[in-house]
């Protein structure tokens, strides 16, 4: 992409309504624009990152064997009356009437609808296990929408649902989700710690939230610092393997890590003092096992092996796809702007032309642009007629992990400069080597 043709409405001033750094940078980098409280338009740069994150979620769900599908955002109130949640959801549910005066609503989550789909089509235990998920817009009329996409009213969420014959099978589904979530967040360059949480309105007693540590997080968390040493890495997982998934689950959840809702001071005090940490975290996902709560309320049964109808065991699992943009920025930025992890960056690298209009510099930039594109990489070429300082400031703000700087002086010696956004370190090298180096870095992501 050429900057001269892109839509990147960068703001010079710091927007006064933004209280936290991710919200400030998303507005300043022209990623989002508020349309009303807690409701945003996603401008090209923000949309690109949103899609990258969504894509990682899809890839990891598919790896775990879960089936993608899509349910409507506007739903009839009838199903929600059946489960009892039409009233229970309270003011967070946006209720609408259609022209025939029928009660409709904008989906805050989708347990009811998926359970209805399930009971309409699945009759036998032989069709289990089954896990389906969607990535779809949700609406919750939050009392205090704030912090930009972190707590929006309209937000993008992955919600998945498993149907199993027995509690044991459903607990395997729970573990499988936990494992796949660990891998999902790590690919985004994030450490999201599974913490024992409270199931609230969802019911059931098995639930973990995934938290990214950040000073601006809304949740208070208590953990054994040894949990931050755990990494998932590139281990091979067979998601059908019950013992393997249970093993990973145990490895990542036995050390103390809890949100304030489930915090137990006495247990916490058993952790060696120097490892006891109290901090703040951003909830980027949650998994639940809630047994037969919905299947009993909504009569979602299958014929068991003995021919008798049994209610299925269920769980649901969510990832805050749009919130993740904020969480990643909170975890990865400096005073100049965002620092995107390679896995989610909107463009793989920036190209800064120090002397636009200079034949040699323009030619070298075009050649770099072509070679990178030919390798399947997406560079963002700042080809505007602007001062170098302004170009650097924009690149730093939008946070591409790598920048190639091209100027007449370097070109005389046959070199360009490759700079890491994270470390600020620069290295001079021939243009072909810069291309090779960038290609090698992204081969791993
Ligand atoms: P919270 O406690 O932050 O209100 P929740 O526990 O009600 O969230 P879930 O029903 O678990 O949310 O939804 C799954 C995920 O969706 C959450 O882990 C979070 O990342 C994201 N999410 C929930 N509410 C919002 C919101 N208002 N704006 C953006 N993302 C949200
Ligand atoms: Mg939650």
Question: How does this model look, in words?
Answer:
With about 450 residues, this protein is α+β, with helices and mostly antiparallel strands. It has two domains: about 5-340, Bira Bifunctional Protein, Domain 2 (BirA Bifunctional Protein, domain 2, 2-Layer Sandwich), CATH 3.30.930; about 350-445, Anticodon-binding domain (Rossmann fold, 3-Layer(aba) Sandwich). It contains 14 helices and 23 strands. The protein has helices at about 20-30, 45-65, 75-85, 85-90, 110-120, 165-185, 240-255, 265-270, 295, 320-330, 360-375, 390-400, 410, 430-445, and strands at about 30-35, 40, 65-70, 75, 95, 105, 130-140, 155-165, 190-195, 205-215, 220-225, 255-260, 275-290, 300-305, 310, 315-320, 335, 335-340, 350-355, 380, 400-405, 415-420, 425-430. Strands 3, 7, 8, 9, 10, 11, 12, 13 and 16 form a nine-stranded mixed sheet that branches. It has a five-stranded mixed sheet with strand order 20-19-21-22-23, sandwiched between helices. Strand 22 (about 415-420) and strand 23 (about 425-430) form a beta hairpin. Helix 2 (about 45-65) crosses helix 10 and helix 6 packs across helix 7. The longest helix is centred in the middle third of the chain and has 21 residues, at about 165-185. The chain is globular and about 80 Å long. The chain starts with 20 loop residues before the first helix and ends with a helix. Magnesium ion binds next to strand 13.
Write the layout of secondary structure elements.
Layout: H1 21-28, E1 32-36, E2 39-42, H2 44-63, E3 67-68, E4 74-76, H3 77-83, H4 85-88, E5 94-97, E6 103-106, H5 111-121, E7 130-139, E8 154-164, H6 167-187, E9 192-196, E10 206-213, E11 219-224, H7 242-253, E12 257-259, H8 265-268, E13 276-291, H9 293-297, E14 301-303, E15 309-311, E16 313-320, H10 321-331, E17 333-334, E18 337-338, E19 349-353, H11 359-374, E20 379-382, H12 388-398, E21 402-406, H13 408-412, E22 416-420, E23 426-429, H14 431-443
Helix pairs in contact: 1-10, 2-6, 2-10, 6-7, 11-14
The structure holds adenosine-5'-triphosphate and magnesium ion.
Magnesium ion binds at residues 209, 283, 286.
